[in-house]
Amino acid sequence: MRLFKLFLKNREKKSMDNDISGNEKQDLRTVQGTVVYTDFFPASGINVSAYRKGLRTEHILGEAVTAQNGSYNIRYETDNSSGTPDHPLHLVVKAYDDEGILLAESPVCFNPPVNAWLNLILTKERVRVMSEYERLGRAISPLLEGLTIEELEENNDYSDLSFIEAATGFSKNVTARFALAHKLKSYGMEPEFWFALLGGTLFRYYPNKSLSEQLPEIREKLSLLDYDFLKENLIRAFYQDEIPAYMQDKVEQWIERFKKLQG
User: Fold this and answer.
1) What is the pTM for the complete model shown?
2) d(Cα 126, Cα 190) in Å, to the nearest integer?
3) Domain residue ranges in the chain
4) Residue 209 phi/psi, 5° resolution?
5) CA 104/CA 97 separation, integer angstroms
6) How many CB atoms lie within 10 A of CB 117?
7) What is the pLDDT along the chain (263 residues), one digit of tens a residue?
């Protein structure tokens, strides 16, 4: 029995020695950074991959998905000889969409530090620019805690717009416009349509009035809009990337439907 216990003890020691030896051969490193659009708005939900770059080769080291603020963090392991003259380590980071299309690529970082920082900018030529409407939705959705956007309010009881402004950087004016656009969708038009119309001279946010108090005034103004005003503001909204560009072919349809709502 004593010999058996000694055998187990020696085996455990040998296993521990092997684990330590194995760990000693690994060098834990990190590459992190931020992915943004050309207007420096954070690009969340973007796939980022880190590669070990050779003269004509690339070997993947790790992957991550950007957070709400556009940040990513990739931890990877290399052997202890990496980064030495005989085994140089060079790093490149790439961003992809969900279909695997390359959106951005960093310059090669030669002999990177243990904790490297590489930022990426997604250019218009390589990625569809996210509209203001889409960016608002993506920024606000994680904060809702079960509420719907049309339930957002700013009054004596609730400070939803103030909270969102502090959390996301979007002003109360634009957040109020976003919430009102969703409140108006009950009239049978998409919220993107209302968001576009409220982006011109039609809407002005009054901090001393709740959204519920401002809504009737907006409805009254909407009932007076003519064809030229509608088309001009819809085109302006597309030109300024306020609503998704893929909806441009709906302009005439939207106007026709809206005129029917006016009676």
Assistant:
1) 0.63
2) 28
3) 23-122, 132-262
4) -125, 140
5) 10
6) 12
7) 443 344 334 544 444 444 444 444 568 999 999 999 887 888 888 899 999 999 999 999 999 999 878 899 999 998 754 555 556 899 999 999 877 889 999 999 999 999 999 999 997 566 666 789 998 998 899 899 999 999 999 999 999 999 999 988 889 999 999 999 999 998 889 999 999 999 978 888 999 999 999 999 999 998 899 999 999 999 999 998 899 999 999 999 999 999 988 87
Residue type, 240: Q
CA distances from 113 to 13, 88, 109, 117 (A): 34, 12, 9, 9
Interior CA angle at 179 toward 238 and 165, to 5°? 95
Of 113, 118, 133, the residue nearest 199 (C-alpha): 133
User: What's phi and psi for 225, nearest 5 deg?
Assistant: -75, 140
CA neighbor of 25 nearest in space, from 14, 36, 13, 17? 17
Tell which residue, 223, 219, 231, 220, has the closest CA to residue 256: 231
What superfamily would CATH give domain 23-122? Transthyretin/hydroxyisourate hydrolase domain (2.60.40.180)
| CA 7 from centre of chain | 56
Q: What angle do CA 44, 46, 52 make, to 5 degrees?
A: 130
